[in-house]
Amino acid sequence: xxxxxxxxxxxxxxxxxxxxxxxxxATDISTAAVSAYxxxxxxxxxxxxxxxxxxxxxxxxxxxxxxxxxxxDSRGGRYLRRYMTRGMQAVRFGGEGIVAVSAWFHAxxxxxxxxxxxxxxxxxxxxVERVRRN
Length: 134
What we know:
mainly alpha; 7 helices; 77% helix; flat
């Protein structure tokens, strides 16, 4: 894999690298938990607002104003470039969907399945590659 070009990052690069920003991670994890609770209480509109609005706002602010040059050059940045494809992002999104539907239907045993799908979205391609090498 070639080294990233020096200088300003493109919007696409910022969208990629913002995923491991601590503020973004904290926002996504906390709003997922709160929205799952609200879904379990059948408060659909409020749950959807909590699920989407903070994440969108944090993403917009980070992509607009964030400097991800250090992230790009970090181990985490290299990991994202290599493994965080749109497909793996879709897997993570699907895991959140499983958590949300599980909370709505009070299918508590399926919430860990959704969490595992999210974890797979973060690490699956790297694990598969590691297994193939060995």
